[in-house]
Amino acid sequence: MTTISQSSVDRPQHSYWRDNISRYGGKVLLYLVLIGCSLWFILPLIWMVMTSFMPIQQVGKFPPEWIPTTWQFENYTEALRFWNFNVTFRNTIVITAATMVGNLVSSTLVAYGFARFRFPYRDTLFLVLLATMMLPFAVLLIPVYIAYNEIGLVNTFWPLILPHYFGNAFFIFLCRQFFLGIPQDLIDSGKIDGAGEMMIFTRIMVPLAKPAIIVIAILSFQNSWNEFLGPLIYLKDQNLHTLALGLYYFQGLPGQGGMQNQQMAATVMMVIPVLVVFFIFQKQFIQGANISGLKG
Q: For 255, left (φ over 0), alpha (ψ -120 to 50), or beta?
């Protein structure tokens, strides 16, 4: 009768644990590093939210205290009382909505043309388009302002809206990459059925490019919602101010210079819509970024 030694029984068990440690140890370490980095990047957001509920005497303490000794929810009501929130919120919604529509319509149409039409110097024109991304905003600031001032559009929403109806180089590139990945057979099938170019674009290309379009919509929303320099340059009337501009002037109001808790409360109210939009569409955003070739 054959007997099994204890060492022969223990060896497979040791091998099993060693394999599991080598297999899952790297993943656990990676997850710990990612969690640590995430907490590091989210600390300013946590500090902003906590400060918005603190009494003013606690804000300037050193070392800083993270938990409010007294939760002052009235910081938000006081911020709303001094800050022209309703007007700035309405103006920001109008500009952001118009900007998103302009970017979606113009960028998808131009991208479709570069992706599916063959015409002379197409690749050269596309390279020129991409080259415009390297022009700093400061280089164009003065001539563009003079042009808008000459036609009487300064102190209106139009300088913040009109440029987005002529295409955005980055959005065009992003959408073109997606259109190039759509099989030509689908377009040929549409042409056989008698569909024109606009019907192919609206019935075939746009529905299939939904992930890329969502990415463009989210980035357009974020850029327009947080834009500060454009409104600062073109909007002089306080009734035309956006949230970013209103928050800037809110710091200089009488009695608000040292009220960092109320300033943080106003900042939280401005940031919340951006966070909500991202968390709702984060799955589509990541999917569209991966499929379109956007990395990093």
A: left
23-25-29 Cα angle (round to 5): 135
Which residue type occupies 80? L
CA atoms within 13 A on the CB side of 42: 8
> Tens digits of per-residue pLDDT, 134-153?
888 888 889 999 999 999 99
| Cβ-count burial 45-83 (b if 16+ within 10 Å, e if not) | eeeeebbbbbeeebbeeeeeeeebeeebeebbebbeeeb
- The CATH fold assigned to 78-292 is MetI-like fold (1.10.3720)
The ranges assigned to domains in the chain are 6-51, 78-292
Q: What percent of the chain has pLDDT over 90?
A: 27
Q: For residue 295, is pLDDT > 50? A: no
DSSP code per residue over 58-91 = HHT-SS--SS-SS--THHHHHHHHHS-HHHHHHH
* pLDDT attached to residue 20: 62
Report the candidate in 19, 262, 292, 45 with the shortest Cα–Cα distance to residue 171: 292
Query: 58: Cβ–Cβ under 8 A, 6 or more apart, which residues?
Result: 65, 68, 69
With 70 as the cut, is the pLDDT of residue 257 above it? no
Quick one: pLDDT at residue 162?
94
Chain centroid to CA 159: how far?
21
